[in-house]
What does this fold into?
Amino acid sequence: MKPPSDTTTSRVAAPPANPTPDSAKTVAARATDSATTTAGNAAAAYKDGTYSAWGTSRHGDIEATVLIKGGRIEAAIVSQCLTQYSCSLISELPIQVVLRQSPEVDFVSGATQSTNAFYYAVVNALKKAK
Amino acid sequence: MTDAYVRTVASMGTVVTAHVVGRAASDIERIELEHAASSALAWFEEVERVCSRFDPESELSRLSKQIGSRMPVSDLLFEVVQFALAVAEESGGAFDPTLGLQLEARGFDREYRSGAVVRTPLESDDMASYRDVELDADQKTIMLGRPLLLDLGGLAKGLAIDMAVRELEQRSFENFAIDAGGDLYLSGHNADDEPWSVGIRHPRHDGELIETLRVSNVAVCTSGDYERRAPGGPAEHHIVDPRTKASAVDAASVTVVAPSAMVADALATAAFVLGPVDALAWLERHGVDGMIITPSLERFATRGLRREYCVERGSSPDSVV
It folds into this structure.
């Protein structure tokens, strides 16, 4: 058995600049492929500022925006929501991220599908804040 | 502080991430690292192409259209079906890979990329079980003795994780993690030179952890009743007891720690159906560790889990075998 060629995963797809609700399904249809070099999980002091990034799940894509003040997460919100379910379902999530100050463990086993998109959006946004 | 290289793709209905610990010291090392990570993640596309029941062109879908004849199949499909049948046999049918039609009928019928509803043109036969799948190891053929649809969901994801791990190991990477929507393999140590810390999601409080494990060179998979609720109602979820054809109700989540992700995923699904008491003994008999959380949040864990992997004594599972 040989793995497929490298090109199968190199479909880079950034969500549209001005997304509309109609585009929700087509956004969910694309694979994202992001490669970044990021600091490990050693004492995370983030650079102050506002950072946005996208996360993908089977239900659609979510853009999270995090506000860093004094090296800490001051706020994390869903800034754009292209999911097939109502965005009110995830309205409680942003607060949890602020409370936890980013994941306290390396990984979580049993993570839910619906929160994945937001989780990865925040993780991607925090990468930019390093 | 050591850096980690992170690469993410969306595949098999979830987000898949490869984290490789280490800093590329040169351009050549960086290219090697990128190539290794994308080759590892390419296995998810490959396994999905073979094993998806949502893709009418997948090898699995094509096999399901051939009832009653011996069909030659790829090594990959043969291996995963053979393993699935072995787990079915070992669990007395608590795990059964032939429930694809029942899952479709319960509303698990949407292709995750397009949202399109997938219906397999087969008459549902409630009598069908894993016993109706016949393998020929010499000829590498599979025969379905009744109209049935194989569902390799979690197993296929586990196999893809295992193949990705093998890909990175063959390229001499030692410290890395593969995360496929909460199904994990953790190799070596993290960027802090410590065993990887893995939180187990609380089955009733989203965003909370019910346990934290410290692990190295193992897969950790959790099956929960909270993930993928069926459209049929709040009590319906995706883990069906093959023996009753209803949602399994004795567990809220099961976590299994095993040397391979395919093993961890399959045994977690079987243990979920078996219920806490039978499951613990069954997991130990198969040489893996695990923890079962009941709907009333009682915890049952193997001795090995508490001894080897739980981080804090205070938060250790309440019950052991």
Remarks:
- Chain A touches chain B through 50 residues (CB under 8 Å).
- Residues 1-44, 98-102 of chain A have pLDDT under 50 and may be disordered.
- The radius of gyration of chain A is 15 Å.
- The longest helix of chain A spans residues 113-128.
